[in-house]
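Practice set, problem 2.
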Amino acid sequence: MKKWLSLMVALLASSGASGQEEVRVYAASSLTNAISAIIESYPAPEGVKITPVYGGSSSLARQLANGAPGDIFISANTKWMDYLSQEQRISRDDVTNLLGNQLVVITHKDNDVTLDLHSAEQWQQLLRDERLAMGDANSVPAGMYARQMFENLHLWSQIEKRVAPSKNVRLALALVERREALLGVVYQTDALLSEKIKVVNTPDPALYEPIIYPAGLLSDSKQANAFYQFLFDDEAKAIFSRFGFVSLEQP
């Protein structure tokens, strides 16, 4: 906290009439509400604009690797941060694990559905004429975690045929909200945001790799560094917690 305040004082003192500086924050779509709230609470110096760019972690990582201008990247898994490191777009020294999350299975709030996660017969019955909404299992972190869960349950070969894949987890949530899919696998944080769905099962986190959101600093901009530090501040942690995330490490 003291470190961040000292940095802010220095930046406030040095910011002047040099024109507007933009800090571009690329963040996984599941972070949309939390990051938007943090940006609103951030005391940005005059002339500094924090611009969020939301989307699937895979899409954002590829954009950044292909030269899209970005200052901070927050991925919904470590794979896509590792990808940027391999592409020499970011140094591992500039990456810190920021948040944790977990998966839930959801349905529309008006559906009368019960689910034994381990029952192949029940999954077959529920999805006989229905779809399961989840992120693309090959690229979207939420979908990759979900696939891992089903593989550990020895159900993936059966479930895969009924999956409605989406480009990001928010689209999977929307399919269930619109009743275009009977069930969905999303993050707990997404489920908390919707009044149109309910959780029917919270899988054991041991069924998939820990869901970790790493945050990386892509530029040497002082203003980008200040906002990056703010993400780990107590005020930002409180906002993340309000949206259901678990704060992890301090840089």
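Problem 2, part (b): a different protein.
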Amino acid sequence: MEASRSEISAADESEEVTYTSLKFSQTPPRAKAPQEKKVPHLWTAVLKGLAIGFGTLSIFLAIVLIWKMSDCHPHCPQQWMAYRGSCYFFSKEKKDWNSSQESCRAQGAHLLVISDTLEMDLFKRIQAECFWIGLRNSTSSGWIWEDGSVLSDARVHSNSHVQNCAVLMKHQFRASSCEVSAPWICEKALR
């Protein structure tokens, strides 16, 4: 039982094995250099830290500013009006000049002293009948303000020599008897 050579060679030919060579890439994907990875993360951390720091600082400054404004910012008492560093109170009740002066002093103020044209311009806008102001006639010195300064560059309209106290009436100074009852204007510095 000997097989012929031709049969063996045919069998060899039919059972021929084909080999294929497969190559798998063993190289890992290109990794970034260690510095390249750290730089973006470092900048992100720095920017986050700066944002938090500035946010905290902003909140702190806002709180300090609000606190300073509420505690230390000069202000006028309720029912007083602020203008150029002073507070003004317009009474609704009527008293004589001396009682009006006492009422202002009880509030840590004095009757209105108009010190310049800007302040006079403010009171010219008031079209009320009349208000006591801190201006009084002294027989020796003429018209004197409560702060001791002499009235200058203005005239007090008077009808009689017994009118020794002044009212502000329709943006003018008018002399009046000190016993007349009238509303008054108090003035004091902002605090």
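Answer key, part (b): The radius of gyration is 48 Å. The chain has a mean pLDDT of 77.
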